[in-house]
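Hi R.,

Here's the chain you asked about this morning:
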Amino acid sequence: MNKVYIETFEDLNNLRNLNEGEYIVILCNDLNLEGKYITPINFKDTNVIFDGNFHSITNLNMDFPYEDNIGLFNTIGDSVIVVKDLELSGSIEGRDNVGLLGGTFNGVINNSHFTGSVYGFDNLGGLVGKSTNKLILNGCTLEMDYPYSTINYPCKEYYKPKKIGYIVAIANKLLVSNCTYNVACDKLSSDYSEVLIKPKKVLKRKKD
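And the predicted structure, written out as tokens:
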């Protein structure tokens, strides 16, 4: 597999230019994206291992309220992403298929920490908006705000969002083990064909 090293915001942003194939992406230091303009990084028919290398990406901000598939990464076609040893924080706003890590995302997330907020209309997930195949989490900590719909239409009942989940809104299969959250586990996903939840801890909410 080809190795790609991320040292700057420009390196991260240029991941969208990867050709089809298999890559190991290694984050070499902490990245603060405050004030940086970034759009979702789409991987088409590309398999990527994103090794956070125990570093952080902070202040990720995406404000695209009229666009779909909003998040740091998107998988297109047969792409699969493995994310490990990463700390990610930020605020994401889109329309449909919205999540901090990915708007549409198939893959594995290991030993990572996530904080932030997600806003949009439908298919809102704290981490992933929509997973069409399998989404696996192991050893992760989520201290996300519960995804919030920004919908403001006269006919609110008609436009009421259908899918909102703390981890993912829609997933064909969601497998979770050894993770901690700050919400009840019955809200991890709003729609799925099968969910396998192994024992986990649930973080207590902090008092205001």
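The radius of gyration is 16 Å.

Let me know if you need anything else.
M.
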